[in-house]
Design brief:
It is a single chain. It is built from 8 helices and 7 strands. The protein is α/β, with parallel strands linked by helices and about 200 residues long. It has one domain: Dipeptide-binding Protein, domain 3 (Roll), CATH 3.10.105.10.
């Protein structure tokens, strides 16, 4: 059976980190991702995404995309952080309650350094220090996907949108993939698995 699918590049945020649990910080990081410039710097990315689902996927709905969620705007990032109480320190890095916005982003991908340097510069302009480290693929999997033992702050990875139930469940299990759990979203994925199962039974 063949069904439409697609690949995406994503930056994962470990929300078990108190700083990344702050919606303002995650929102600011989104504003600081210049997707078009990052695309230009990478040989493995073809176009910016406007949804968490690729446009080639059968579940994609263009009307459901939030344009504001994918805007690159350093001024908005600064405003969001200011309002949330993250103030600039003497070293140019924002801090709050003794915690600094200093993050390491890990990846196993060969295009990571060229692509992420774009975001590093934008983050610096908003008072966020972002450094990158390339690690072995097996170590990356261990640090990012070991449930309950996630050992990362930010991670740059690739993801394939596939519809086979087993593989899809591995890729989209929210608690292990992004350390974020939402019962409503998980219910939607359960419906998707059931729909996929029904399609496979008829092929």
């Amino acid at each position: 059976m063949q069904l439409p699918s697609g690949n995406m590049s994503v930056i994962l945020m470990n929300q078990k980190d108190e700083r990344l649990a702050d919606l303002a910080v995650r929102t600011a990081l989104s504003y600081l991702a210049d997707r078009q410039s990052m695309l230009t710097a990478s040989t493995k990315v073809t176009k910016p995404m406007e949804s968490c689902i690729t446009s080639s996927d059968m579940y994609y709905d263009a009307t459901a995309a939030d344009p504001e969620a994918f805007v690159f705007d350093i001024d908005k990032a600064n405003a969001v952080l200011d309002e949330a109480g993250w103030t600039l320190g003497s070293d140019g890095i924002r801090e709050k309650d003794g915690k600094k916005l200093e993050f390491e982003i890990i990846s196993w991908r060969s295009d990571a350094s060229d692509l992420l340097v774009v975001m590093m510069d934008a983050c610096k302009q908003a008072g966020i220090s972002l450094t990158m480290k390339t690690i072995d693929t097996s170590l990356f999997i261990q640090r990012v996907f070991t449930t309950g033992e996630e050992d990362f702050e930010l991670a740059y990875n690739g993801m394939t949108m596939v519809l086979r139930r087993v593989v899809t469940k591995i890729c989209t299990a929210l608690e292990t993939y992004s350390t974020y759990s939402n019962s409503e979203v998980e219910d939607l994925f359960a419906q998707m698995y059931a729909s996929t199962d029904d399609q496979e039974e008829h092929h």
